[in-house]
UniProtKB/TrEMBL annotation:
<protein>
    <submittedName>
        <fullName>AsnC family transcriptional regulator</fullName>
    </submittedName>
</protein>
<dbReference type="InterPro" id="IPR019887">
    <property type="entry name" value="Tscrpt_reg_AsnC/Lrp_C"/>
</dbReference>
<dbReference type="InterPro" id="IPR000485">
    <property type="entry name" value="AsnC-type_HTH_dom"/>
</dbReference>
<dbReference type="InterPro" id="IPR019888">
    <property type="entry name" value="Tscrpt_reg_AsnC-like"/>
</dbReference>
<dbReference type="InterPro" id="IPR036390">
    <property type="entry name" value="WH_DNA-bd_sf"/>
</dbReference>
<dbReference type="Pfam" id="PF13412">
    <property type="entry name" value="HTH_24"/>
</dbReference>
<dbReference type="InterPro" id="IPR036388">
    <property type="entry name" value="WH-like_DNA-bd_sf"/>
</dbReference>
<dbReference type="GO" id="GO:0006355">
    <property type="term" value="P:regulation of DNA-templated transcription"/>
</dbReference>
<dbReference type="Pfam" id="PF01037">
    <property type="entry name" value="AsnC_trans_reg"/>
</dbReference>
<dbReference type="GO" id="GO:0005829">
    <property type="term" value="C:cytosol"/>
</dbReference>
<dbReference type="InterPro" id="IPR011008">
    <property type="entry name" value="Dimeric_a/b-barrel"/>
</dbReference>
<dbReference type="InterPro" id="IPR011991">
    <property type="entry name" value="ArsR-like_HTH"/>
</dbReference>
<dbReference type="GO" id="GO:0043200">
    <property type="term" value="P:response to amino acid"/>
</dbReference>
<dbReference type="GO" id="GO:0043565">
    <property type="term" value="F:sequence-specific DNA binding"/>
</dbReference>
<dbReference type="InterPro" id="IPR019885">
    <property type="entry name" value="Tscrpt_reg_HTH_AsnC-type_CS"/>
</dbReference>
Length: 157
């Protein structure tokens, strides 16, 4: 899909305010409501907009510890990776799972837990028990310096 300036403006605004009304969105980008809504629907149908969600405050929910876990696998086979990915997708504390390269590890997980005790429980009873996990290296987040959810739409394409 070829994006014009209106599409890019719609994407930028919706990333920061997904609850904006169509009328307000149309006003902000300089279109009437009908064509604005058609563009939003087209962006959704094209798969550029994949959903709308609320962003929650982890600390307010009692999840004060964020850890990055690098996972090494014993075998590099599609079956082993699929088993790991299926298992890790079912762990609610896992916020992100990335298959990575350029490191000694194969995966990087971002997890959010209550405290070190909860982290130990997660690591020892759930993550290291996944078939194929042969190594684990943990780092703890001290402070979030940049924490974005919005892509730089104007820089794309």
């Amino acid at each position: 899909m070829e994006l014009d300036r209106y599409d890019r403006q719609i994407l930028e605004i919706l990333q920061t305010d997904g609850r904006i009304s169509n009328q307000e969105l149309a006003d902000r980008i300089g279109l009437s409501p009908s064509p604005c809504l058609r563009r939003v629907r087209a962006l959704e149908e094209a798969g550029l907009i994949v959903g709308y969600r609320a962003l929650l405050d982890a600390k307010a929910l009692g999840l004060s510890l964020t850890a990055l876990i690098q996972i090494s696998m014993d075998q590099h086979t599609p079956e082993r990776f699929a088993t790991f990915e299926t298992a890790v997708a079912e762990i609610p504390e896992v916020m992100e799972c990335l298959l990575i390269t350029g490191q000694a590890a194969d995966y990087q997980l971002k997890v959010a837990v209550k405290d070190l005790d909860a982290y130990q429980e997660l690591l020892l009873k759930r993550i290291t028990g996944i078939p194929g996990v042969s190594g684990v290296h943990s780092s703890f987040v001290l402070r979030r310096v940049v924490d974005k959810t919005a892509f730089a739409v104007g820089a794309a394409g």
